[in-house]
């Protein structure tokens, strides 16, 4: 932040948030600035997470098919506790590679760890690549020892 004629940081810290049905607005220098409700930490922690799959609740070899706005990704859980997966899909991963599913975000700095959630962006990391997808539109879960009739979708 620049410092012009006073402390911009002090003005920033003193901004008062105001909530409304469309999200949150903040008042800064007399101007109202709209902020998505998903970008506010209080709203984030209250989110229902119903249309989501969390690796901590899965077993090794479970499969997740996540369809985003642009691509479909096939994810095989290797280690639920540290987020290690095999992933294939999109232009970034044409073949299966080992990666870490960091979690889901709105493209900002707050992330729901080891989770894939509808309407959120998946974040995957590999030693040479970092991928933030377009928003997830559909999630299918295939248990590791499942038959075709056991496929669960959201």
List the helices and strands and how they pair.
Blueprint: H1 8-13, E1 17-20, E2 23-28, E3 31-35, H2 41-46, E4 52-54, E5 63-68, E6 72-79, E7 84-89, E8 93-105, E9 111-113, E10 115-117, E11 121-126, E12 129-142, E13 152-153
Summarize this, please?
By secondary structure, the protein is mainly beta. The chain is built from 2 helices and 13 strands, in the order H-E-E-E-H-E-E-E-E-E-E-E-E-E-E.
What does this entry look like structurally?
It is a single chain. The protein is mainly β and 154 residues long. The protein folds into 2 domains: 8-46, no CATH class; 52-153, no CATH class. The chain is 8% helix and 51% strand. It has 2 helices and 13 strands, in the order H-E-E-E-H-E-E-E-E-E-E-E-E-E-E. The chain has a 6-stranded antiparallel barrel with strand order 5-6-7-8-11-12. Strand 1 and strand 2 form a beta hairpin. The longest helix has 6 residues, at 8-13. The relative contact order is 0.15.
Largest sheet: 6 strands, antiparallel, barrel
Structural class: mainly beta
Tally of helical runs: 2
Low-confidence stretches: 1-22
Can you tell me the number of structural domains? 2
Shape: globular
List how many beta strands DSSP finds: 13
What fraction of the residues are assigned to beta strands by DSSP? over 45%
What fraction, in percent, of the residue positions are helical? under 10%
Largest beta sheet: what is the strand line-up? 5-6-7-8-11-12
Rg on CA atoms, Å? 19 Å
What is the average of the pLDDT values?
77
First-last Cα distance: 43 Å
Run of helices and strands? HEEEHEEEEEEEEEE
